[in-house]
Amino acid sequence: MTQPITPGHQPAPPAPESTGLSGWIDQRLPIISAFKAEYIHFRMPRNLNGLWNFGAILTIVLLLMLATGTFLAMHYTPTTAEAFLSVEAIDRQLAGGWLLRAIHMVGANLFLAALYVHLFRGLYYGSYKAPRELLWLTGLLLLVMVMATAFAGYILPWGQMSYWGADVISKAVGAVPVIGGTLEHILAGGEALGDIFLHRFFVLHFILAFLVVGVVGLHVAAVHVSGSNNPLGIEPKTPKDTVPFHPYFTSKDLFGLVLFALIFALLLFFWPGLLMEADNYAPADPMHTPADIEPEWYFLPFYGMLQSIPSKFGGLLAAAGSLLVLFALPWLDRSPVRSARFRPLCRVGLIGLVVSFVLLGLVGEHHAAGGWMLLGRAALLYYYCYFLVLLPLASRIEKTRPLPASIAAAQGEG
Amino acid sequence: MPHHATLKSFALLAGLCLATPVCAAEPAATPPHHSWRFDGPLGTFDQGSLQRGFVVYDRICSTCHGMRSLTYNDLAGIGLSQKAIGDLAHSKQFPGPLDEDSQPTTRPGTPDDHFKSPFPSDAAAAAMMGGVAPPDQSRLALIKPHGADWLYAFLTGYRMPAPAGAPSAPGKFYNDWADGHLVGMPPPLVNGAVTFPDGTPATVEQQAKDVTTFLVWASDPHRNARHHIGKGVVLYLIVLLLLAYTWKKKIWKRLHGA
Question: What GO molecular function annotations does the UniProt record carry, in alphabetical order (chain A) (predicted)?
Fold first, then answer.
């Protein structure tokens, strides 16, 4: 080993086979050697834990969503008169339609769940720090795009929650000073939420899903340039710190994927009620406001922020800002130590962040009524303080624990 | 216009904030729980009960309640034969095309037709039924909290005469499980009002139990298939999980052996 070790790539891959069909293709378009370099020989830190499975899981779920979504779209009619009935027909009369739709619905829920875990892993192990800032930013862009896709998708069945959820959001947009009314009108496509709105969100849902695939391409390219971070947050220094992607991480990812698939199947076949909002099986009725308007669980923390602030525009700013602040994270946290394992103050602070996020979800579920309002404000204040006060201060005052000499040394293989 | 929209949205927000305490002041009672065969992650519908329940729906409920998401073909799911489905559909009259004199015609139904609605529209239903259209029953058991238990409690919850001090209103009936204890629907089930082809005595309780089963099936028609396929899929995944775990262990052992 005389060549320098770059994070993920092996020194020099063997010269491509120049004979046969694969050699002929590879000389003209090196997809085979590129695949070998990126997914067979690619060097990964040897100490990755189970949280590093979620990238592969998210990729597979995305493909599953595109596949089922394509077939659902073939049988869906985006008009206010027909949307609900066409979804009912998919569920009841289309052969295997109930299964397609169940996969798409459970997939949407678990996609968001896996995204939150993936995001938490990045926060906990400092994966947003140099040289992975663009990896972090493309990931956040994906989060926002997936949330928009999920929101648009939930509108399509045109049930009571589809309609009134859309109503709450378009009204919230309408609260923006000066241009709010115009924005609301553009979003709704008219005076009321009707055919234009539904058709528009159908197209948006469809096109966003494929744009997500494009950004995933950038995200994956970025991780193959910088290499994966790891639980210790230190860069691999020698080949002993790394292992080739295949067979080490193909076997580990397979195990994680099958475990995830098992949870997926249990929810889909035996406990569908856990993720289902029964109210959405009543057709949209603009004349009849439901007693309890509630978004899907994955939007509840943001709904809690929206409701904790009495001013509508303020609530909208707080909810949007809670995502925007994440984009500034690589520049708010200046500590040279990445992993929270070696940052006692940040570790406690981060646990507090998770608690406040879950609390905000509960606040959303209880419509910030009574004591929940105060709790929601406290949690919201903490959320912002973590990023804007604690992290910038921590890099100066925190006494970090000593880092190990290398990954292999930390595993007792030095 | 924007002012109007803002006012409306504030009204909505105020409504949202008020909704919870108002509801909390009068807690919705939970209907008594029955152990239904179709409950739980492995529950299945009993075909005999489903077929009796359909008799009750067809003879009684369907005179006022639509079930527009279902087609006659869907009844294959409760074990009706293709012939029985064809005959049933054929016995219903649907609006046909205009004839050569532009007069409306009727035609017999086909298995692909959706269940015939008792009223031409919701507005017509509301006008004829005292202001409130009888709700569609396609997903009723799903939308109602504690759907099956509530349906059974409601169908057996009429009391005549009403208990002393109960609210009353002309043209309304007292029911323990109706909102505000008053409902426009007269007691729909009467002992012996239907006869079951399998000879089961048609008591009110039996009819209520069977029609509840049928309505729960209507709101989740693929439950039996889902549970059946699910068992196979989960078993397959457990075997695959064990294999994947063994492979992973074998691979990673190399690293620590080296």
Answer: metal ion binding; oxidoreductase activity; quinol-cytochrome-c reductase activity
